Amino acid sequence: MAPVHEQPFDSDAPDASARLAAAAHAVQALPRRRDQLLPALLTAQHALGWLPREAVVHVAEHVRVPVSEVYATATGYSELRMERPVPGTWHVCTGVSCDLLGARALLAAVEAALPGWVRGIDCQFLCALAPVAVDDAERLYGRVTAERVLALARAETEGTVR
Ligand code: FES
Questions:
Q1: Given Cys at both, which of 26, 112, 125, 147 links 2, Cβ 3.0 to 4.6 Å?
Q2: Which domain covers residue 27, as residue numbers?
Q3: Ligand 1 centre from 108 Cα, in Å?
Q4: Domain total in the chain
Q5: Dist CA 85 CA 136 (whole Å)
Q6: Residues 42 and 8 sit within 8 Å (Cβ to Cβ)
Q7: Pocket test for ligand 1, best of 100, 122, 126 (most atoms within 8 A of CB)
Q8: Pocket test for ligand 1, best of 91, 107, 121, 132 (most atoms within 8 A of CB)
Q9: Ligand 1 contact, 123 CB (< 6 A)
Q10: Ligand 1 atom at shortest distance from the alpha carbon of 130
Q11: Cα–Cα dist 52/63, whole Å
């Protein structure tokens, strides 16, 4: 699988074409079959950090599935990102299990302390460890509290190891 880039793909960046080509190359290593749709989407996201329109179209062409069906699939999985992630942004799961264990209050407390730094996100399939937070490198943290998330934020800001 292609290496993960620290920076999410940016269509305005000088390396945009090269990154799309590298993602396409990685996708082309997969068989050209419908059952490769999810692996292809994950491969493209791994290379680009998210799924820009160009990657979705390429995946559709490669696995021979209509673009509309690829979008429908991609938007159905919380692991797949259809928007460019903002570096430094964290997420707090607001799925049912996390919500029942206070995720919305946690999210509000973190948002109050660090406006614009955290967003809600759908279930991350780690419900047994609810409430769950996700950092900007896709690392998952279970049974978090607002205090723990804010401590992690401070550690990140100060560059200390988590
Ligand atoms: S509801 Fe939060 S991880 Fe499933």
A1: 26
A2: 16-74
A3: 17
A4: 2
A5: 8
A6: no
A7: 126
A8: 132
A9: yes
A10: 2
A11: 17
